[in-house]
Amino acid sequence: EETNEALEPIRIAESASHSDMLWDISLRARIDAAMEAGEIYCLYQPKIDRASGSIAGVEALVRWHDPARGFIEPLHFVQQCEKAGRMEHLTRYVLQSACSAGQLLHFRGTMIKMSVNISATLLGDMRIVGIVRNILQATRFDPRFLVLEVTETSRIADLSTAAAILSELRALGLNVSIDDFGMGAANFETFFALPFDELKIDRLFVSNMLKDPKARAIVSSLVAMGREARITIVAEGVETPEEVEILNEIGCDELQGYVFSRPISLSKLLEFNENREEARKANMV
Ligand code: C2E
Ligand code: MG
Ligand code: MG
Ligand code: MG
């Protein structure tokens, strides 16, 4: 009796992790089919230009809606993609969608930037340069409007290889951004070692600005640094009008967050942009 009771919690714990493992294995096995079936797609979140109030650009954020299981958490399936060795494939798919969307926006006269997240694990191999070049050619999207946000910089195996690859990418005419700055390994060491055109201040600092003067000082120091080093500073995760006000005072270049818009479909984005431009013009006269 005693032995059974003692074993019970262990058995439950084991079966829970076992089913998690099975779920992840089936997830990895379904990734390619899901892309083909159109279950994986991008939403676009606006980034607002502080000076003009217009949309400066959008960030493509991947989504997976499985018809049987519902939405699958992006960060989780991105990690599973990495484990399944399908990161390059997913990135190609997202880049293709995002550059096509960007080209469509430009064709309609909406000259905004398109940001795409690039996992640091892809910065160990020059192949990514060819992939990006081919997609730019195929979609005819103007490279000067493409921004690659390097995520998970903790996973950069070799900084000098990554620096060489990012230089090649920049030579295509595009811009490179460091994502989630201030968190984990997205730190000053990475920032100094790699050629960045843009820095995204992690949501942590933005959400603490109101209650913690240290967080506000960090944000304003980064903005000052960006001005001097000619690096675009973007605040992520802006959720309240009070945060917008502080970021305006500080002079942060671009603002992104739920206070303006959640990630939305391309057609909603076109609508959002039209409404915003109309409101801007109405306020000017
Ligand atoms: P990220 O690149 O830092 O993207 C910002 C995340 O914050 C997005 O979550 C976005 O929906 C969320 N967000 C935006 N504004 C707000 C806000 O005001 N408040 C809060 N609380 N959250 C906000 P999402 O879409 O779940 O993506 C999570 C992460 O997954 C991304 O973080 C990025 O690291 C990764 N990811 C997403 N799409 C891709 C992709 O295509 N490729 C790669 N490699 N990673 C991706
Ligand atoms: Mg990002
Ligand atoms: Mg980010
Ligand atoms: Mg983030």
UniProtKB/TrEMBL annotation:
The segment(s) forming the EAL domain are 24-277
Which residues does UniProt assign to the signal peptide? Answer: none
Q: Which domain of life is it from?
A: Bacteria
- Entry protein name: EAL domain-containing protein
- Taxonomic classification: Bacteria, Pseudomonadati, Pseudomonadota, Alphaproteobacteria, Sphingomonadales
